Every structure is written in C-alpha cells, then in structure tokens.
Amino acid sequence: MFSFKSKSAIGKNSNNNIVIQNSTLTNFVTNAPAETVGLMAKYEAYEDIQQYVQSVMTTVRNTHPLFPTFSATYSAELEKLISTPETADAFEKHPKKIKGTFQIDYKKYPHMDKAETPWEYAYRTQTNVELATKSYTEYLGETKDPFPVAEYTEGMVTVIGFNEFPPAVNAVVESGDISIPILLRRKPSFKFGELLLGNESTGHGFNISISTDESQKNTTINFLKVEDCDLKAHLACEELLDAIYTTKKIVIKVKDVELMGAMINESELTSNIFQNAKVLKTYIKNLLTIEQYTGCKFNPNIGEVSFDDIETSIIMAASLEGKWRLRTLSFDDAVRCDYDQIPDDIADYDEVDSESVAEMKVLSIDLHGESFTAEKFIIVYRDAKINNIASVLKNVKKKKKNILLTMKPMGGKDVFCKYQFMDGITHIPKE
Questions:
Q1: Where are the beta strands (DSSP E) in 176-330?
Q2: Which residue from 38, 49, 122, 228 has the highest number of Cβ atoms inside 10 Å of its Cβ?
Q3: Interval 163-216: pLDDT, tens
C-alpha cells in the first residue's frame, strides 16, 4: 500500500479560496499584465517586475509573423507597438506598401499637373501634399502589417513628404578668362516640366539661376547682383559681367566638365549690370588701391556712382602709385583760383606757352563715404590756353575769389592734354 502526503495552506488575505489537493487545473484565470506588475510593486518585487516585463517584451517581439526579419517593438513616440526591421535587407524582402483610397483637392495645389503624381509634385516643389484618406492599410510585402505605424480613422489625412534634393556641388561660372567658384544645387520649382538650378553659396556678389525644360532645349539664365561680398569679390563679379558683355558667352562647369554653355543675345546685354561693368570694374580697382595705400576701409556696397566719383578715384589711385592722371580734352572748366593766386602777367600766357601749371590747396576730398585730404593738387595743361581770359582779368581786378578758368586747345589744335596729381594724400578717420 502506498500513501501520499500533501500540504496546502490558505493565506490570511484569501477570500474564501478553495484548495483541491492532488488535482489538475485545466481552466485558470490570471491577472492582466498591468495588474500583475501592480501586485508585484505592492510587495516591492522590483527585480521580478524587470524579469516579467523583459519576458513579456521578448514574447511580443517574437510574435511578429515575419520574425526574425521583422519584430514588434514599442515606440515611445507613437505609444504603440510597431513593426521594426531586424535585418539590413528587411525592406528589400518585404517592401513597405500602403494600400488605400485617397482624394486630392487640386484647388489647394494649383501648380500640380494631372500628368504627375503627388509624390513627383512634392519632390519638385519640396513641399508636403495632403490627401483626404478614405481607406488605409499598411503592408510589408504581401503581408498585412500587424503592427502598422498608422491605422485608418474617420477624417484621416495622409501627408506625402519629400526627399530633399541632392546636396550642392562645386561649380564655376566662366566667361573669357574670368572664373568664379560657386556651390550649385537644384532649386524647387512650381512650373511643371522645369528643372531649376541655382547657387547655394553667397559672398560672390551675384545670384544665378538656370532654368531648363525636360528636353533641355530651352534654357534661361538669370543673373542678379546682390550686396553680399567684400570689395575684392565685388571686383571679380564686375570682371565676370564685363567678360560676358565682351565675349557674349557664359559657361558653367562642374568638375571641369561643361554643364552648360550659352551665347548671350545682344538684346540681353542692354541691361545696366552688363553695360556699367567696365566702369565699375575701374572704380572698384581704384578703391582697393586707395585702401592699400591709406589704410581706409570702404563700404563694399557700391550703389550709385557719379562721374566725379569715378574721376576722383582715378586721380587718387594714380597719385598714390606715383603716376599722373592724363586726359585728352577739347574743353575744361575744372580750375578755380582766388585772385591772389593768379599771376599778374597771366594775359601774357595766352598763345605763348605750350604748358601751363595750376597748383591748388586741397581742403577735403569725399569719396565713397570716406574723407581724405592732400597737401596740394597740381594740374598741368599742354597745348592749351585760357578760354575766358577777359573774364579772369576782370575778376582779378575786382579781387574776387573762386575765379573760374576755362581751357581750350591752342590755335591749330583740336585737343589738349590735362595732367593731374595729388600730393600727400591722407585718410581722415571718422570720429
């Protein structure tokens, strides 16, 4: 005969529990996970909680129908389980798909062509597109995703995002022997069928945009000057514009390969940015020379430049380099002198000497927002004579100040030479 001993105990927290010894339970009830964790926490069984949650998450992870290629993991951001790739080729084996019914309101996207998809529109414009969603189901390959990122709800809106254009590439804009490096990148376009490129870089004094259709048969180049550079870069910009005006050609290269080249029509060169480039090129060169010798710092933004500004810059730059400014004229009215600075025998100079010298004091010189002074300003005329000698003598007799002397060629000549030089130029700093 055999005997069995069994021991059972009912705790004090029991609620009229029944214990059946030596029996097998085929139906049982367990607490929900949250209740289980709560009960463990009540008895401070924190290590048990850790093991329990890890066990649950491992079980959940492995329940994915495409495991081990995909698993189910919890997303704190979405506050739900989502399908997560476990291998590098997971989406190659089971591509992410969305099957649904969508409606688009073309009134919200007037630049969208019905020949293109919303995805194509989003990419070329670099904007999001919203679709009214009537049905929505996510798939992994042919398998319905058991843990989708999104699920259909009434009034659901699907937003189509876009991949950004490829990063900018190093390029150069060339004309003649002038070359300026830029960063070139595709730009968003709201014109269907248009490919738009433009500079991503700054600091070179211009923005350039290149528009071409899909066949690349019609290409338009827009060149816009901007004030975003120093004087040296501004000079390079004007040199490029002058080269375009002269050669009537512009080339854009990427890695020494010609991306595009275009001949410029005469009608397109009538813009002021091309026609004024040669003068501004000279002006900026002179400003840089003056900076070098005087230590001043000019504003890099040029703005409007008068003829007097250009002439002053030429005389100053030449003088600082020890050179005379030479002009060939048929008339000149630049000299003014007080009566006591005019020689008593000035009338005898008329038609006698082939060279006349005027030396004047310089109180101040204003150029491009900066002030300067010089010890003296010397003007030498060759093959010239005083045109208004009678008026000059009359004003000398009256002891007038600031008397105007006009000059014309000597008899038998059509022009005369005028040499100008400023001695002892110094910059006057701003207070």
A1: 178-187, 194-199, 206-213, 219-225, 249-254, 257-263, 325-329
A2: 122
A3: 999 999 999 999 999 999 999 999 999 999 999 999 999 999 999 999 988 766
Strand partners, 178: 175
Helix (H) or strand (E) holding 370: strand 370-382
Q: Which two tokens stand for residue 125?
A: 């414009």
Q: What SS3 class is residue 284? A: helix
Q: At what angle do helices 46-62 and 33-42 cross, to 10 degrees?
A: 160
Give the confidence band of 349 by pLDDT, cuts at 50, 70, 90. Answer: low
What φ, ψ does residue 336 adopt, rounded to 5°?
A: -135, 135
Q: Whose CA is closest to 87, among 64, 70, 66? A: 70
Residue 159 · residue 123 · CB < 8 Å: no
Give strand ranges (E) for 86-142.
Answer: 96-103, 129-140
**Cα–Cα distance between 37 and 48 in angstroms, integer?**
9
Query: Which secondary structure element, helix H or strand E, spans residue 160, and what is its range?
Result: strand 157-160
Average pLDDT over residues 306-325: 96
- The SS3 call for residue 13 is coil
User: Residue 125: is its pLDDT beyond 70?
Assistant: yes
Q: How far apart are CA 306 and CA 188, in angstroms?
A: 40
Length of the chain: 431
pLDDT tens readout for residues 79-121: 999 999 999 999 999 999 999 999 999 999 999 999 999 999 9
239-256 CB burial, b ≥16 within 10 A, e <16: bbbbbbbebbebbbbeee
In sequence order, the 6+-apart residues with CB closer than 8 A to the CB of 162 are: 119, 122, 123, 125, 126, 127, 128
| CB of 51 closer than 8 Å to CB of 37 | no
Rg (CA), the chain: 43
Residue 313 — φ and ψ, nearest 5°? -65, -40
169-175 sheet: strands from edge to edge: 219-225, 206-213, 194-199, 178-187, 169-175, 249-254, 257-263
CA within 13 Å, CB half, 187: 17
C-alpha–C-alpha distance, residues 199 and 181, integer Å: 10
